[in-house]
Amino acid sequence: MKHASTITRHLVGLLLALACGAALALPRHLPVPGGIAVLELAGAAAPQVHFDGRPQPVVRENGRWFALIGIPLDSVPGPQQATVDDGGRQRTQAFTVRARHYPTQRLTIPDARMVTPPPELAERIVAEQQRLDALKRHFSPSPAPATDFALPAAGRLSARFGLRRVLNGEARAPHSGLDLAVAGGQPVRAPAAGTVLAVEDFYFAGRTVVIDHGQGLLTLYAHLSQVAVAPGQAVARGAALGASGASGRATGPHLHWVVVVGGSAVDPELFLRRP
């Protein structure tokens, strides 16, 4: 019996370790514009890391520290460096941003006001863009966030991150998120634990929820038909955030999912496990 009890304890410990490892699985290292540079950091204590003047998430896995560097989509390929503050001692850590080609997507939006808004809406749109920019820069010095994400909705991956958008024949900003093809009214769920940072109703993004996962790791859900959470609310992995829809600028019901790392929108697929 004693031997069986020992085996049981070992099995429980192994299962817990595997569970913790799964929860802290690192995103995929892909140092390209719109990607993530996963940099291993020396030292026993948690350092602070900045890139392009912005703080970046630092996580620990298997006893080692890693910085997750969000690379802006408009970055120029070439050598870059992050600043590491390790107990008051500053150093730099170099990495190289590789080139990446993103294809072009051409869409027709029936409502021309959603492509070229009328002048009377200019002030609103500028204010909303400033609000979005401020949300993306949000950084909470919380414990290391979970980085093993689940898809927030059950649907096919449609418009991928980084697509060069041409709307009604006019070039527009690249696609800053990942679209999931889901019918209107389908559940949208948190891919990992976090706190609701904001609930907004934007002209282009429609009904929007922003989740703070900690240390500059944020997720955003746009074009919702319904919202089921409020700012400041803690949410667990899998918690209902609302329902998919077509609010704002959308050609039809779908979920537009954005992942922000250290102030920059990055490819959400880097946080998903490969099949």
Automatic annotation (TrEMBL):
Where in this chain does the entry annotate a coiled-coil region?
A: none
* Residue span(s) of domain M23ase beta-sheet core: 174-268
Positions of the Peptidase family M23 N-terminal domain: 30-98
Instruction: Drop me one GO molecular function for this one.
Output: metalloendopeptidase activity
Does the keyword section mention Signal?
Answer: yes
Position of the signal peptide? 1-25
> Matching InterPro entries, A to Z?
Cell_wall_metabolism_enzyme (IPR050570), Dup_hybrid_motif (IPR011055), M23ase_b-sheet_dom (IPR016047), Peptidase_M23_N (IPR040487)
Give the superkingdom in one word: Bacteria
Q: Which PANTHER family match?
A: M23 FAMILY METALLOPEPTIDASE (PTHR21666:SF285), PEPTIDASE-RELATED (PTHR21666)
The identity of this protein, by name, is Peptidoglycan DD-metalloendopeptidase family protein
- Say which species the protein is native to: Azospira restricta
